Amino acid sequence: MSLLERSLGPAFWQGVLLATCAWTVAAVHVAAASDASQPPLPAPFPRLIPLHTRLGNPAPGEWLAEHPEPGQTYLQYVRSNPVRPDKKRRAIYVQPLGEFTAAQRKVVALTAEYMQRYFGLPVRMRDPLPLKLIPANARRTHPTWKVDQILSTYVLESVLVPRLPADAMAYIAFTPVDLWPGEGWNFVFGQASLSDRVGVWSFNRFGDPDASEAAFKLCLHRTLKLATHETAHMFSMAHCTLFECNMGGSNHLEEADRQPSWLCPQCLAKLCWATNSNPREHFERLAEFCKTHGFTKEREFYEKSLRAIGVR
Fold first, then answer.
1. What is the dihedral of CA 89, 94, 98, 99, to 10 degrees?
2. Which of 67, 109, 150, 175 is most buried when burial is the number of CB atoms within 10 A of its CB?
3. Model-level pTM?
4. Are 70 and 19 in contact (CB under 8 A)?
C-alpha cells in the first residue's frame, strides 16, 4: 500500500493510511476522549497522560475538520500485526539526494542523529546521490509557482528500491528539491511505500537554513518532526486523534508548526512496543539532544516526563 501525502493548493497532507469512514468529526472526538480516559496502556505510560493536552474540536481548515479519522489506540496497534523491526531488518538508512549547502547538510546529519535517538534503532547515512539520476520526464517546473520539482514516485521506484539495503527497516531519501507525486497534484512534503520500505522527504518549504541561526533552527525543527512523523507511519502508526502529538495530522504548515515534537502516551507505547525499547531511554536520549541543540521547551518536557515515570 502506498503511503501518500499530498497538497492541493496550499494543503499540507501529513496523512498516511487514510481510512474511509462515515464518522462525523464530533463522533471521532467523543470516542477519542473515551479511549483517553481509560487507556489500555501498560505501565508506566498512564503516568504520562496528565502531561499531555487532549484534542478539542478542530477549527475549520484543520486536518480533522476535513479528514475525519477513527484514530488508533495502543491496543488496536498491537493487534493489527504492524510493520516493525526484526532481527534481519533493524536499520534506518538516510539517503541524501541532490546538491546541499553546508547548512542543509548539517540539517540532514542532525536529523539522522535525532532519528536514531527517537526510534532507538541504528541510523546509517549513505553517500549522497546526484540529482542527474532523475531524468527529464521525472522533473517539471510548477506551472504557477515556477518552482523546480522532481517526481516523488520516480525517486521511490527507480532510485531507492533498486538500492534498498538488505537490513533496512526503512530507506529514506532527504532532498532540498521540491517534490510532486504526479498529475493533479501541486506538491508533497513526502511520500513512502510501506510495502517497499522506502520514502522520500523534502525540506524545500521549511525555510532557508543558511539565512540565519534562527532560520536554521526552524528548518531543523520542522525537519525533525517531519522525519519522525513519517518514519513512524512506516511502522504502521496511524494519525493520533487523542492528544496534541507528533503523530497528529496537519493540513498546512501553520498547523504542522503547532504540533509538538513528542509523542502522546498512546503513540509512545506503540513505538516502544514496536522497537522493544523503554520510555526512560527514549526520554533521556531526546532530552540530551535537545539540550545540546537549544530546544529548551522540548528538553524541559522530556525531563518532566522522566519525573512522571519516576526516574528523576
1. -160
2. 175
3. 0.86
4. yes
